[in-house]
């Protein structure tokens, strides 16, 4: 066995496409991943244009955000994993500081506060940064430890994860906090967390569920209840789920046609160009459209996991694997939500939903992945 | 063998573990993606039809198109029930940013009170779907509409809606004939054809409006429209136009009706006038009336209570439901019964000492004239309304023969075609009494019945109907209020609903008519005071219905009795005798004797109908109109 296939793939650029290898390597980009991402973003823009009610402004705005995000990806990819590793603690501490700032502002201002804003200049969601900074911090910590992680390592990791996650949860943004935690836990999982501990944690989590329930905000509980029985409040909180399922279901195999979805275009579908864009896709382009997008996502994840495996050090591997798998979790949670198998949480459909911040975060993540893949030392360490 | 291992990094192992874990993760990813695919397959293929239906139901709304209610005209073509545009103020809650500020503003602009605002809030909560407008205020006046128009830009989500509302131009006099429409209540809703009434808010509650509800309402249409989630109509997909309700033409003559109402002059009572040849009800008045328009716009509970508790019972249709003893107005019919049953001849003279005594009896049944009329034949008996004569007739006939003869004239049953909820009244008989009270019939009761007292209960409508049949010499016509429904004239089963009243000798009619004519025109006639200057021949009969029973030998003293216990005054008449154009029944409650208090009203009404130039021109106009219509079709 000996990872024969891995090797063949990893050597392919150096042997088969001599000049190209140096070209893409020089750019620190992976052409396959880039192609898949660009396809996804292109197709996403087409869906978004329809979902926004044929608003060119929305589509162009998204395209320009994609431009910024691609640029960010390119820039990040130029840094070596070593550099990224060195900057990780700083990014993590900065994130914690900003979360603190948000919390203080939230206390002063009104209610839920997720944004950090210099009016007119920039608006920034610290939890977005934490989506990358927390798993990177965990990876950086574990990188220095002997793996699989010991109990003591796990406790320290729990601390690294727990502090920011709790702060995000208090914003309150349960969805994001869970995703951040998830990304970090994936790092530990990939680092070789023993199955016994996994089993133990699963039991603990299951018993913690009731505790979580009692710590939820009323609207969050409502969401879960509505998810369990959307018909109980068809005009209120059940509306989103019912309309979304109706949109997808009525799309059938081939869909109603691009721009012709009655659920989407007649505004029965809420948040149709953000969180519920998947329902527009399902309604207008049908099962086939859905499967094409799903296939793109799976291919991206597949390529990403491959790239992570080619990384030369554990930090790169762990962070790369976590980024890719987290990306898929977004996809799963979002499509699960619009198709009614998961409760409504504010998770966008990656690179399709309207929104700049999340696109930037995602592509920065892929930038890290590409950096991990393309920066190779000549000699193993 | 537990030795703490040195934390030395084993890179190769880390790579191996990572590969295994990422392979596992890849498998999980495929599994989850497969799960999503399966879920999508379930929604989009297996349950596709369910969701297609649901999505269509979302998008397509079927809106009922209510038909416009048919108009109602009187026999002269005067509009008596019309549809008036009214304007209602509604608010679409979802379009209003600050509902309290908007309501405050509207309170300023329109002068709303707190109950209206509260009612709006309640209606707003009870809506079926988002973006459904809720009513804030109905029937805006022009001033309010203008003020709203000026402030429109400050009031997003506030709309003025036009709606047709029933309006009765002559509410008081026509209230009992027409009845009224009102908002459909839950009980009615349950029994209605929900499709046809989907867009209709009003339904005929009483009177003609109820009786001809089906024709007046028409057939609802519908349109299918595509709407967005806010309920805004984007386009019309399909349309079936409504079929408007049929216009109704009544037999009522508003002018005559008005006059009859005015003649009652604030007294409680009822006047019914029927055209004998046709059965057309020319006037049907119950006084006091009420303002039927209040019921259309929605009468307040307080006003409704005060109407209901009014001792004069303005909501009660006396003409159709009022039960009165028939009194002496029974006598012409009784005379015919006696003749037909051969218990008397027109010429037979009966001596009246001022009372009648049953054979073997001791009780004196008194004539109204204490000292008696002396020698009385049939004609004189009618003219002076002699009681002794008719005690005798009743005794000779027996109650059962008298009753069955009265039935022929429509007493004791509902004969009218379309008078809503008309009562049948009571015609006493042995069997009736046994059933009702479980008691035997006493001979004395036959005597009371002979002068129209006792158990008799008749409605003014029945009395007028019987009078019309009498005027027709027994030819039965069915009284009715509708002349034409839509284009087609109502062809009520005029004939054959009841057999005509046949007498063995036709001349007996004349004998009775002569007596009745003497009532008005005779030297001794009980209503001779109305006969002066009469330009046509009129047959009449006065009656007095006892409200209060007098003991034997007690003398009736009108002054001593409280007003409510005074006798009802009755008068029936038809004219002209040789070619009857109008049959009239007048009842004035607690007015005293019929000859003095009701007869004059009948005369005035007959004068109006027979002599007024207006009527001639109206009739001519009607003829011309009918000709034109024939030419047109």
Give the domain tally of chain B: 2
Gross CATH architecture of the largest domain in chain B: 3-Layer(aba) Sandwich
Number of strands of chain A: 2
In the CATH hierarchy, the third-tier topology of the largest domain in chain B is known as Beta-lactamase
Shape call of chain A = globular
> What's the pLDDT, averaged over the residues of chain A?
84
Distance N to C terminus of chain B:
119 Å
- Biggest sheet record of chain B: 7 strands, mixed
Largest interface, counted with CB-CB under 8 A?
Answer: A-B, 54 and 46 residues
Features:
heterodimer, A: 72% helix, globular, B: 633 residues, alpha+beta, Penicillin-binding protein 2a (Domain 2), Beta-lactamase, 2 domains, five-stranded antiparallel β-sheet, 23 strands
Write the SSE topology.
The complex is a heterodimer of chains A (381) and B (633).
Chain A lengths: L3 H12 L2 H10 L3 H21 L4 H23 L2 H28 L7 E3 L3 E3 L1 H18 L7 H19 L4 H17 L4 H21 L2 H11 L9 H14 L10 H4 L11 H33 L4 H25 L17 H19 L7
Antiparallel strand pairs in A: 1-2
Chain B lengths: L10 H36 L1 H12 E6 L6 E2 L5 E13 L7 H12 L3 H12 L8 E4 L4 H9 L7 E10 L3 H8 L2 E3 L2 H6 L10 E3 L2 H5 L1 H5 E2 L1 E7 L5 E8 L2 E2 L3 E3 L3 H11 L4 E7 L4 E8 L5 H5 L3 H9 L8 H4 L9 H10 L9 E3 L2 E3 L6 E3 L7 E3 L1 H7 L2 H11 L1 H10 L21 H8 L5 H8 L9 H12 L10 E4 L2 E2 L17 H15 L17 E7 L22 E8 L6 E7 L5 H4 L1 H13 L1 H20 L1
Parallel strand pairs in B: 2-12
Antiparallel strand pairs in B: 1-9, 2-3, 3-4, 3-5, 6-7, 8-11, 9-10, 12-19, 13-14, 13-23, 15-18, 16-17, 19-20, 21-22, 22-23
Helix pairs in contact in B: 10-23, 14-16, 14-17, 14-21, 15-21, 16-19
């Amino acid at each position: 066995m000996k990872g024969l296939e891995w090797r063949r793939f990893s050597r392919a650029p150096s042997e088969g496409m001599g000049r190209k290898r140096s070209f893409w390597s020089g750019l620190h980009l992976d052409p396959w991943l880039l192609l898949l991402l660009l396809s996804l973003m292109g197709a996403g823009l087409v869906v978004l244009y329809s979902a926004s009610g044929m608003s060119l402004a929305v589509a162009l705005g998204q395209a320009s955000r994609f431009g910024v995000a691609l640029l960010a990806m390119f820039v990040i990819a130029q840094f070596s994993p070593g550099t990224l590793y060195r900057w990780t603690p700083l990014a993590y501490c900065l994130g914690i500081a900003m979360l603190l700032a948000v919390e203080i502002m939230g206390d002063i201002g009104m209610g839920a506060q997720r944004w950090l804003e210099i009016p007119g200049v920039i608006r920034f969601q610290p939890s977005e940064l934490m989506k990358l900074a927390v798993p990177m911090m965990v990876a950086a910590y574990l990188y220095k430890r002997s793996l699989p992680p010991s109990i003591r390592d796990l406790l320290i990791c729990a601390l690294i994860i727990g502090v920011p996650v709790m702060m995000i949860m208090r914003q309150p943004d349960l969805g994001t906090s869970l995703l951040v935690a998830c990304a970090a836990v994936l790092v530990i999982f990939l680092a070789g967390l023993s199955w016994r501990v996994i089993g133990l944690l699963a039991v603990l989590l299951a018993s913690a569920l009731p505790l979580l329930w009692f710590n939820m905000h009323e609207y969050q509980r409502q969401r879960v209840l509505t998810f369990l029985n959307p018909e109980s409040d068809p005009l209120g909180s059940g509306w989103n789920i019912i309309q979304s399922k109706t949109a997808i279901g009525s799309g059938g195999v081939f869909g109603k046609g691009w721009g012709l979805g009655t659920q989407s275009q007649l505004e029965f579908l809420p948040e149709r160009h953000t969180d519920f864009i998947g329902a527009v896709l399902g309604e207008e382009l049908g099962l086939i459209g859905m499967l094409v997008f799903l296939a793109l996502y799976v291919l991206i994840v597949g390529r990403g996991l491959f790239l992570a495996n080619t990384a030369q050090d554990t930090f790169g591997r762990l962070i790369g694997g976590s980024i890719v798998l987290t990306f898929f979790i977004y996809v799963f949670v979002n499509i699960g939500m619009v198709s009614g198998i998961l409760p409504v949480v504010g998770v966008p459909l990656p690179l399709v939903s309207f929104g700049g911040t999340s696109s930037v975060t995602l592509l920065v993540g892929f930038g890290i992945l590409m950096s991990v893949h393309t920066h190779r030392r000549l000699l193993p360490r | 063998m537990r030795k703490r291992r040195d934390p030395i990094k084993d890179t190769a192992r880390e790579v191996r573990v990572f590969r295994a874990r990422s392979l596992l993760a890849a498998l999980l990813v495929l599994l989850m993606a497969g799960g999503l695919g399966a879920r999508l397959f379930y929604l989009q293929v297996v349950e596709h039809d369910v969701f297609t239906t649901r999505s269509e139901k979302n998008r397509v709304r079927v809106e009922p198109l209510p038909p416009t209610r048919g108009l109602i005209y009187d026999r002269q073509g005067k509009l008596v029930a019309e549809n008036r545009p009214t304007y209602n103020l509604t608010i679409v809650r979802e379009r209003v940013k600050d509902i309290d500020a908007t309501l405050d503003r509207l309170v300023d602009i329109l002068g709303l009170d707190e109950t209206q605002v509260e009612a709006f809030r309640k209606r707003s909560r009870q809506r079926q779907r988002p973006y459904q407008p809720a009513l804030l205020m109905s029937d805006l006046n022009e001033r309010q509409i203008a003020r709203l128009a000026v402030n429109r830009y400050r009031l997003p989500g506030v709309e003025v809606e036009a709606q047709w509302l029933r309006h009765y131009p002559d509410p008081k006099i026509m209230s009992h004939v027409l009845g009224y429409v009102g908002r459909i209540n839950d009980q009615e809703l349950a029994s209605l054809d929900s499709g046809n009434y989907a867009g209709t808010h009003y339904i005929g509650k009483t009177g003609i409006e109820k009786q001809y509800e089906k024709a007046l309402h028409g057939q609802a249409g519908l349109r299918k429209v595509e709407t967005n989630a806010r309920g805004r109509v984007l386009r019309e997909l399909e349309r079936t136009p409504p079929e408007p309700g049929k216009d109704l033409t009544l037999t009522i003559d508003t002018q005559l009706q008005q006059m009859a109402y005015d003649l009652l002059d604030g007294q409680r009572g009822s006047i019914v006038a029927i055209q004998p040849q046709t059965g057309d009800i020319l006037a049907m008045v119950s006084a006091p009336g009420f303002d039927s328009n209040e019921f259309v716009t929605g009468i307040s509970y307080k006003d409704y209570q005060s109407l209901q508790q009014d001792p004069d019972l303005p909501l009660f249709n006396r003409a159709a439901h009022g039960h009165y003893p028939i009194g002496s107005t029974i006598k012409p019919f009784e005379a015919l019964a006696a003749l037909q049953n051969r218990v008397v001849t027109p010429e037979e003279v009966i001596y009246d000492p001022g009372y009648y005594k049953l054979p073997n009896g001791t009780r004196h049944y008194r004539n109204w004239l204490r000292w008696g009329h002396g020698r009385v034949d049939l004609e004189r008996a009618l003219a002076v309304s002699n009681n002794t004569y008719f005690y005798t007739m009743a005794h000779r006939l027996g109650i059962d023969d008298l009753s069955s003869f009265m039935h022929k004239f429509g007493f004791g049953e509902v004969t009218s075609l379309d008078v809503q909820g008309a009562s049948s009244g009571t015609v006493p008989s042995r069997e009736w009494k046994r059933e009702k009270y479980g008691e035997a019939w006493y001979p004395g009761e036959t005597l009371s019945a002979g002068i129209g007292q006792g158990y008799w209960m008749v409605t003014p409508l029945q009395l007028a109907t019987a009078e019309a049949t009498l005027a027709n010499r027994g030819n039965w016509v069915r009284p009715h209020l509708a002349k034409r429904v839509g284009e087609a004239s109502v062809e009520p089963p005029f004939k054959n609903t009841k057999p005509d009243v046949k007498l063995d000798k036709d001349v007996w009619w004349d004998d009775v008519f002569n007596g009745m004519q003497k009532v008005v025109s005779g030297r001794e006639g009980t209503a001779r005071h109305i006969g002066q200057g009469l330009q046509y021949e009129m047959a009449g009969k006065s009656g007095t219905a006892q409200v209060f029973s007098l003991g034997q030998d007690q003398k009736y003293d009108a002054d001593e009795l409280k007003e409510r216990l005074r006798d009802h005054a009755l008068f029936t008449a038809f004219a002209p005798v040789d070619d009857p154009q109008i049959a009239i029944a007048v009842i004035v409650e607690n007015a005293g004797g019929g000859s003095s208090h009701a007869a004059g009203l009948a005369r005035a009404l007959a004068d109006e109908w027979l002599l007024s130039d207006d009527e001639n021109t109206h009739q001519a106009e009607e003829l011309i109109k009918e000709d034109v219509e024939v030419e047109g079709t």
